[in-house]
Description:
Layout: E1 9-11, E2 17-19, H1 20-25, E3 27-32, H2 42-46, E4 50-52, E5 58-60, E6 64-66, H3 69-77, E7 83-87, E8 93-95
Antiparallel strand pairs: 1-2, 3-6, 3-7, 4-5, 7-8
Amino acid sequence: MEDGHAGSWTEDPVGEVVTGESAATGRWRLAVDATMCIGSGACAGSSAHFRMTQDGHAEPSEDVIVADDTARDAAVCCPVEAITVSDTSTGELIAPA
């Protein structure tokens, strides 16, 4: 326990230390293609992981999150599939399917 943290931990691919439950549940990378986004707001309305910018486009609140179904749902509900959710450890596309 030299670093002062108790319990299990790992380092994710972007170099962030992930502890406890997050290490077990996985991390997802969120991205919005601003050239495709039409600003419907469906993503921001369905998940706290997305917000609308002043220019009317969506963006992730954070680029990397602990796996959360609301983020996947937001990508699925995007009418133009501008949102992608991928697994940070494997690169696998989670949504849209």
